[in-house]
Amino acid sequence: MIDVSHIGPCYAYRGQRSDETTFDYGQRTANELETEILRLGPDQVMAFVAEPVVGATMAAVPAVDGYFKRIRQICDQYGVLLILDEVMCGMGRTGTLFASEHDDISPDICTIAKGLGAGYQPIGATLCTKEIFDAIADGSGFFQHGHTYVGHPVACAAALAVVTKLTQTGLVDQVGPKGQALTDMLHQAFGQNPIVGDIRGRGLFVGLEFVKDRETKAVIDPAHKFHAKLKGAAFDEGLICYPMGGTIDGKHGDHVLLAPPFISETRHLEELVEKLRAAVARVTADVGI
What we know:
Blueprint: H1 12-15, H2 22-40, E1 47-50, E2 53-54, E3 61-62, H3 67-78, E4 81-85, E5 109-112, E6 125-128, H4 130-137, H5 153-168, H6 175-190, E7 196-201, E8 206-210, H7 226-237, E9 242-245, E10 254-258, H8 266-287
Parallel strand pairs: 1-4, 4-5
Antiparallel strand pairs: 2-3, 5-6, 7-8, 8-10, 9-10
């Protein structure tokens, strides 16, 4: 049996108080980890798992500056492993090969997938520090893991080709500027839209959170199924995106996640924004917000 405990997310749009700086908010949120470790007992806590930029569940929410440095300090202090899930946000998606590079930290274990195969072949991998590797090698020397097709040669060949492109062609260096261009376009198109509460992200990993009221941040009634309707409307416009619901607590909140290809040109990003704008307008009118 595996027991799991949770702390609150680093979600400044909804969590930061008006009387605290962004940095102070991040420290307060990170310190919840220490409080929880002490509540459970340091000898009972094996690891802390997090996404450097939260993907599907909250739509490209990056941690604020200083949050993960404090998390790293707490993990080191109490002998807790830091495991980062970079399945969505890793492999160049945020403008660096690993998303955690933005936070100037390194995890003990990192999981990668999705971008590792660039859509050519399903593949995932787990990276770890030398200390962890040596502990296994010098111990039993055996690591029981994987499934029938683990180490599939075609998948590994695809991943090797992708990693070579990412690390030797300057492709990842383009992600930051293109991501900034996309964010600027989104602000221009949706910055004054009354139902768009937040536009956030990092690199070509960007999200919009939809609200009923921008001032109060009140959510759209889940009964409207705004995100589901947006998915259909966007597809009708010729745009494949990733709308989801339950942004805040698994039940309330609507958002859309955007992750265009690294090779996107300005005209592609403009097309994306225009098609999303048309889809949002259509759904807004449909549900009567």
